[in-house]
Amino acid sequence: MKPYIITIERQYGSGGKTVGKMLAKQLNIPFYNREIVTMASEESGINPVYFSDERLKPNLIERLRNRGSDTAVLNDSRESYLTDNALFQHQTKVIRRLADEGPCVIVGRCADYVLKGRKDVVRVFVHADDDFCLEQAMLVNSLSASAVKKKIAEVDEYHAKYYKYHTGKDWYDARNYDLSLNSGVLGFEGTMNEILNYMELRSQLDEE
């Protein structure tokens, strides 16, 4: 099979991250998710808390800015360093470097868009129905069902807006991806296998 970089966008609770880890293990390639934030932080000198997404509220940012250099930009507090576009560009550089280093699995962060134009990228969107996402999310949250439902809606809304802002495209639009898979129907292993089957077929077609 031809080596590919696999990008995964996923609904909260659909298990897209789990599928990504399974793929990375199966193919013996690196897996990147929050690690990209750590790398972007280390390379830019910006505290990783500023790269946080749906969990970071505006009032928290303001409080952190007022606390000093231990929680702000190292040696520099200029606002330009903390704009959404600036932070996105730091992550973009990391994603492109990781892709240049070889096959890997990258979850989220608009990696499918960041790596547009590359012929060695498989772009995947993992989704599921509300009940399945709630069931899976309840396994990792010690909240009430109603609170988890609210969290799922908030996280997915954030991801959709983040994707739209940085790509100009609809996060849910299947045309952005090579595969759009329902993990609630296929299961995690089935979802992984469908990605592997696609990679095998595409590898054969690319060689013709």
Structure commentary:
This protein is an alpha/beta fold and 208 residues long. It has a single domain, classed as P-loop containing nucleotide triphosphate hydrolases (Rossmann fold, 3-Layer(aba) Sandwich), CATH 3.40.50. It has eight helices and five strands. The protein has a five-stranded parallel β-sheet with strand order 2-3-1-4-5, with helices on one face. α6 crosses α7.
Short description:
This protein is α/β, with parallel strands linked by helices. It has helices at 16-27, 35-44, 58-65, 84-101, 111-114, 130-138, 145-167, 183-207; strands at 5-10, 31-32, 105-107, 121-127, 179-182.
Q: Please state roughly what percent of the residues sit in beta strands, choosing from under 5%, 5-15%, 15-25%, 25-35%, 35-45% or over 45%.
A: 5-15%
Radius of gyration: 18 Å
CATH architecture: 3-Layer(aba) Sandwich
**What is the helix fraction of residues, given as a range?**
40-55%
For the secondary structure, the number of strands is 5
Low-confidence runs? 54-61, 63-81
Secondary structure class reads alpha/beta
CATH C-level class is Alpha Beta
Strand order of the largest sheet: 2-3-1-4-5
- The N- to C-terminal Cα distance equals 13 Å
Q: What is the mean pLDDT?
A: 84
Number of domains: 1
What is the CATH fold-level name? Rossmann fold
Number of helices: 8
- Principal-axis shape: globular
The CATH H-level superfamily is P-loop containing nucleotide triphosphate hydrolases
Q: What is the chain-wise order of helices and strands? A: EHEHHHEHEHHEH
Question: Sheet with the most strands?
Answer: 5 strands, parallel
